[in-house]
Amino acid sequence: MADLAGNLAVRGERVELVPARPGSLAVVRLKDGRNIGRLEVLPGGLGELIAWELCIDEAERGYGAGSEAARLFALAASQAGWTRLRARAHPQFGLSVYFWMRMGFRPLHGEGPEGGIWFVRRLT
């Protein structure tokens, strides 16, 4: 999975996704190089990549870092040849439902992992 994170490294206008450890990307603010969050990724089914967790430090929320990280994730995944993204909304974090919908993902019917909701987005 180290290669998975390495293939998703990408730089945006305000943040970049930087491989941190296998299956994990750091969300790094370009202005000062500070690590402000993380994106945990897993391979899914055929052509599918899973955003298991996108977490931005609480003090950094509300400034667009999470939205830019999600857009960069989709861009990098598409460029790496993935055709579908899946994201998890944990049941304890209700705002993640709205977040993933704003990012162009649609909810899937049925219960997701740990009682949450799965979201999906086609890239092709």
Automatic annotation (TrEMBL):
SUPFAM superfamilies in UniProt: Acyl-CoA N-acyltransferases (Nat)
Please report the name of this protein according to its UniProt entry. Answer: GNAT family N-acetyltransferase
- Gene3D superfamilies from the entry? 3.40.630.30
Q: Which organism is it from?
A: Tepidiforma bonchosmolovskayae
Where does the N-acetyltransferase domain start and stop, copy by copy? 1-124
